[in-house]
Every structure is written in structure tokens, then in C-alpha cells.
Amino acid sequence: MEQIVQQIEAYKQEIAAFQPKTADELEQYRIKFLGTKGLVKALFGEMKSVPNEQKKEFGQILNAFKQLAEGKYEEFQQLKDEGAQAGHELDLTLPAEPHRLGTRHPISILRNKAIRIFERLGFTIAEGPEIEDDWHNFTALNLAENHPARDMQDTFYVNHNPDWLLRTHTSSVQARVMEQGNLPIRIICPGRVYRNETISARAHCFFHQIEGLYIAENVSFADLKQTLYYFVQEMFGKDFKVRFRPSYFPFTEPSAEMDISCLICGGEGCNVCKHTGWVEILGCGMVHPQILENCGIDSKKYTGFAFGIGIERLTMLKYQIKDLRLFSENDLRFLKQFQGTV
């Protein structure tokens, strides 16, 4: 113990004389005295060799030595801070780092534009749950339990429960609004929908829709056509042709599909339009009287029209995108192309 005390006294003299000039010298001092393999820790390791009756006295000597070593280090702490700052000096001659600007997703861009167009026609936005019950998604919309039209939509059921599912269309929102009975109704229902389909360049297991509904007295198919004519002209311009084709939907009678001349080939024929010169953009029709009755609306007094638009289809036509999967891959090279678009 006497030998160790003599060593400590020598170390104290060395510490008292220590006057570092640089941060490196201070760091070397820290390593020598206060590091994990430093003298302070080594001396504390000698405690096991000291007789029990002297441990208290020896412990006091070690603690005083440790405080002295730490105090000296703290005394020159400013020197260490200056050394750290020296390696990070601000060079005012360097060019500023550019701020990366975010951009809206192309789906959001087309969705917002479509909403603004229909708002100018007096439509308001209605939203509903994405996890829906069978009544609002199917039965209220004229698709009975064994209706063959249910096979047209491959459905994701929740926990294999046929009463709960991921909505296959936003028509379920229309059913909820009609049940409230606040007539007349003039709404659009934007949102995400889900169908159990194989993912490819032209199909996905989830996509986005905007469906519209107008119910009032004396609503006709002519009202539907003029509404949709206005929409496509505001969305794509006037340099194209439009046609309606008879079709079938369980929700509407009569039903139709609306085509526009291909924006890519100008109607000449290409792979996108399958060399027909026409591209389908939406389905529509007059609301089936049975749906009005299911939702508590007098079908003899009120009529209405409905339509459904796939936002991905509009976006692909608008920006001439040929692969649907690009919308959900989050590839920044793809998304940056829409910077500045609103």
C-alpha cells in the first residue's frame, strides 16, 4: 500500500504540472488517467490486495486522486470543444445545399382535379369506411346473395366472414347517403377500393375511384350525358371524340360505358387502345329503381343517375403511363416527374 501511495503522489505532481496546449494533448491525458485502461481504473483494481483494515483509508486516497484527475480534465474542457469545432468550421464560400421539394402523387393530382371539376357542377364530397358490410357493398345495390354479378368482383373478406369485407367500389358510400333520405342528392365519392386480382401492368389488388350520384325529381339520361361531357372536356380538353355504348351494371338501368378517342394515338389505333382508336374511361347509367326502394326513396317520384370513374385509368391516359404498377412502387425517379404539377 505504501508503494501505491507513493505512485499516487508522483501522479499528482504530474497532473499539477500538466498544461495542455491542444485538444490532442488533452485527449492523451484522458486516455492515460481516465480511460478504460487508465491509471485511475488500474489503481482501483489494486483494492483487492489491500488488507481489510486499510481498505477504507485506501479508498479515500483513491477517490481524492480520481477527483483530482477528473477536475484537471474538466478544467481544460473548453480546449476539447474548440478542437471539435475546428473540424466543422462553416465555409461560407460553399454553395448552399438545395432543399428537396416534395411532390404530389399523380393519383392525388388527378383525384383533386376531378373533385374540383365536379364541385363546379354543385357536387359535394361524401366518404365512407373502407371495411364495409355486405348490405351496403352488395345487397342494397341490387346484388342479392346469389346474384351472378357478384362474381364480377373478386372480394377480400375480413377473417373469412361473408358479412364484412374490403369495399369493392365506393358505391357503398352512395348507399349510406341514400339511406339518410336527405333529398335531393348530388355527391361524388372518391376513395380506395380493393379487389382480389392478379397484379399486372393493367390491374392491381387496390385502386382508386370517384363515383358520382345525382337523385332528384325528373333527372334524365340527358342530364347524365351533359354532366360527363363537361367533365371529360375539362379534364382532357376538347380535341377528342366521345361515345356512349350500351352496357350492363346491376346498379343502373339503362347502363352505358363512356369512351373517348385515344389520347396517345389520336384515334389512329395503338397498343393502348388495342388498335380500336377508343379507350373506355367510365361506366354510368340511371339508378335502378330497386336501389332507390332499398334505401327508402320513392322510385316513382325520384330518379337519378350514377357513374364510376377509375382514377388510375384517367391518370394513365392523362400522362401516357403504360404500367399501373408504377403508381404503387414509390420509385422517386417516377414520382419526381410530377414535381410542380397541381
In short:
The chain has 342 residues and is an alpha+beta fold. It is built from twelve helices and ten strands. Helix 1 (2-17) packs parallel to helix 4, helix 2 crosses helix 5 (77-86) and helix 6 packs across helix 11.
Dominant shape: elongated
**Beta-strand content:** 15-25%
Low-confidence sequence ranges: none
Distance between the termini: 81 Å
Count of discrete alpha- or pi-helical segments spanning 4 or more residues:
12
**Largest sheet, strands/sense/barrel:** 7 strands, mixed
Compressed to H and E, one letter per element, the order equals: HHHHHHEEHEEHEEHEEEHEHH
In spatial order, strands of the major sheet run 1-5-6-10-9-8-7
Share of residues in helices: 25-40%
Mean of residue pLDDT?
86
Number of domains: 2
* Gyration radius over CA: 38 Å
CATH superfamily annotation of the largest domain: Bira Bifunctional Protein, Domain 2
What is the fold-level CATH name, i.e. the topology of the largest domain? BirA Bifunctional Protein, domain 2
**Which class of secondary structure composition applies to the elements?**
alpha+beta
CATH architecture identity of the largest domain: 2-Layer Sandwich
Cofactor: Mg(2+)
Family: Belongs to the class-II aminoacyl-tRNA synthetase family. Phe-tRNA synthetase alpha subunit type 1 subfamily.
Protein name: Phenylalanine--tRNA ligase alpha subunit
Subcellular location: Cytoplasm
